[in-house]
Hints:
48% of the residues lie in helices and 16% in strands.
Amino acid sequence: MSSNDAGVRRGSSTRRAELKQAYKEKPPPMGVFVIRNRANGKVLVGTALNLPGMLNRFRFELTTGIHRRWPALQEDWNRHGADSFSFEVLDVLPPTEEPRTDLKEELQVLEALWLERLRPYGEAGYNRGTG
């Protein structure tokens, strides 16, 4: 191996470390999401401090059949299949320079707005509540 090869390898490892650090410093998008069952029109509205992570978790749990919190959603997933569902981000909390005091409270306010708008209860959705 030439000294040039070692420099390239060292450079790529430095770049990888820089990318990893930048990822750690940038918080993931947080906000409100919806899972839509296109076969029957039902929706599930939820919030997450890490939207990509939460949507990946839902996909994984539904695909493996271990989703326990929303049994009706799991039943429909099993009945209609993955291709009948879409995972969408409805709203994202914009990043701010100043620290937020209560992110969960802000998410609850956003979620309440979307719950009022979509009314995902009973025959219209998987959320529990009035409807």
